[in-house]
Amino acid sequence: MAKVPAANRYQALIESIFFEHYATGKIEFEFARPEIKAHAAKLGIELPENLGDVIYAMRFRTPLPSRVLATQTDGREWVIELAGRAQYRFKLVKATRIVPRDDLAKVGIPDATPEIIRAYALDDEQALLAIVRYNRLIDTFLGLTTYSLQNHLRTTVSGIGQIEIDELYVGLDRYGCHYVIPVQAKGGKDQIGVVQTTQDIRFAENKFPGMRCRAISAQFMPDGSVALFELTVQDDEVKVVQERHYRLVPADQLDRNAVVRYMD
Fold it and tell me: Is the dihedral of CA 235, 201, 78, 97 positive or negative?
């Protein structure tokens, strides 16, 4: 079996699967998880124990192979959607890149993160979710009272299959309206995309039909600040409803003049 980096293995597998189904002019087609094993045997590639990691990496972390990207049309890009249990769908959608704005002011927040959490957080995503939770950034961002219901929630959604919600909050406003708030955490090279946002919203609609959904994405910025986005999906595109950047600082280092300006 070939001993090559995981990213290269995954790209080789996805490229082989893609071109088995693709024909010029196609804008979507499905494939099944067993095809990963078949193509690994064909290419002499050693598979990871978790086959799902191949798909997850190609959906959120690793760029698609250059030969696949070459089939994209102007302004559109291939994404991999869930299409049922062990089923996936390549789909050509409008290209979307959501990154933190560089012209947005940062709001100073007294840092309430326990030091022991910072010391032992295992990865960027875990650290980000903990920082958002302990500093009640969802409450501050949305103007709601919210509670973390569950994190890394694995569940199924009709027509999509198994998904994972990074963290799920529930909340209420001053009028008593109830909200369900799926949060996706983006650290490292992960990007905000239409796929996870769509499945988070579909999950909320399916499982909590009597509650209002507000989908959130949290992302570390290079200086350690936290960018929060409220997202929606319109015409198969992710749209930003609102965006705020929060800088966590010790309470005695808060800019008192800025605190007053926030009142404007």
Answer: positive
pTM of the full structure: 0.76
For strands 28-32 and 87-94, give the pairing.
antiparallel
The DSSP bridge pattern shows strands 106-110 and 28-32 to be unpaired
Question: Are 195 and 166 in contact, with CB atoms under 8 Å apart?
Answer: no
Distance CA 124, CA 194 (A): 21
Domain assignments of the chain as residue spans, ordered by start:
6-94, 106-261
Helix axes 6-21, 34-43, angle to 10 degrees: 110
SS3 236: coil
pLDDT class for 259, splitting at 50, 70, 90?
low
Residues 100 and 243: their CA atoms lie apart, in Å, by 8
Q: Give the phi and the psi of residue 136 in degrees, each rounded to 5.
A: 50, 45
pLDDT tens digit sequence for 187-245: 766 677 777 888 899 899 999 999 999 999 999 988 889 999 999 988 777 889 999 99
